[in-house]
Design brief:
Layout: H1 5-41, H2 44-63, H3 69-87
Length: 88
């Protein structure tokens, strides 16, 4: 346990930040799963719409450095490839 007042405050701040980051990460995973589910169902129009929304979510979370920018690019690339693969 923290001994000083500033250490206690930093512990509180870290708890709040961790909870906030976890909620953002959960939103990211939900957005990715929604696109994957649409791709598996074969709904290309729905998948494209969900993909556009998920790109916004992914970019926002990457800008806030919750995930690395390369990880965000990888997620977008793989989702895009999955949607393009539906047409073939």
């Amino acid at each position: 346990m923290a001994n000083t007042a500033q250490a206690r405050k930093r512990a509180r701040q870290n708890d709040a930040a961790r909870a906030h980051n976890a909620s953002l990460r959960s939103r990211l995973r939900t957005a990715i799963k929604a696109v994957r589910k649409a791709v598996d169902a074969g709904d290309q129009d729905v998948a494209r719409t969900l993909f556009q929304n998920s790109v916004k979510t992914i970019d926002t979370i990457a800008d806030k450095r919750i995930i690395h920018k390369n990880a965000a690019a990888r997620h977008k690339s793989r989702l895009s490839a999955a949607i393009k693969g539906m047409a073939a």
